[in-house]
Amino acid sequence: MILEISLSKKELIVLLLIYCAHLDFKFTNQEKDYIKSKSTLDIFTRMHQLYNEHKMSEIQGLILSNFLTSFSFSDTKGFLLDDLRGLYIADGEFCRFEQSFDRFFRTYLMAT
Fold first, then answer.
1. Is the pLDDT of residue 74 over 60?
2. Which pLDDT belongs to residue 112?
């Protein structure tokens, strides 16, 4: 199922961070706190609920489909990569799943 939901830039960042936090199949309190520090509690709650209501593949498709409309400047992409790096170290682990997605996402960013 393809999700056709238009997300604001802030919603997209939070959803991406929630998605990435789940890559290692653990959603730690440190990761939650980090994501909340990047957003409002309302956006975090709505995006976390959206994440929980759909399959990971649907969320990934939603993120990628919204990405091109929300991020058009390379400097903005740099800030996003900084947010992702912060998330990866929030729980003290940078597991293989996170490393794999990080490589994929960096390649995706370079292509857009």
1. no
2. 67
Tell me how long the chain is.
112
Asked whether the predicted pLDDT for residue 19 surpasses 70, the reply is yes
Determine the average pLDDT of the residues in 26-45: 94
Structure tokens at 52: 């929980």
Q: Which long-range contacts (CB under 8 A, 24 or more apart) does 16-20 make?
A: 16/63, 16/80, 16/84, 17/83, 17/84, 17/87, 18/44, 18/47, 18/48, 18/51, 19/51, 19/56, 19/59, 19/60, 19/63, 20/84, 20/87, 20/88, 20/98, 20/101
Largest Cα span, the chain: 34
pTM: 0.82
Specify the pLDDT at position 109.
74
Helix 74-90 / helix 9-21 crossing angle, nearest 10 deg? 30
Alpha-carbon gap, residue 92 to 54, rounded angstroms: 27
Residues 6+ apart with CB under 8 A from 81: 106, 109
